[in-house]
Amino acid sequence: MKIVPIFGKNFKAIQYTGEKKDEFHRVFSVWNDPEYLDSFFEKNKMHLSGEFWGNMDVETAITKTLFYVEEFERQFEDLNSKYSRNELVRELDDFFIPLHKIKESGEIISQHKAFFNWLRLYALKLDGDVFIVTGGAIKLTKAMQDSKHTNMELRKIKSCRDYLITQGIITADTIVEEVEF
Question: What's the domain of life for this entry (predicted)?
Answer without folding.
Answer: Bacteria
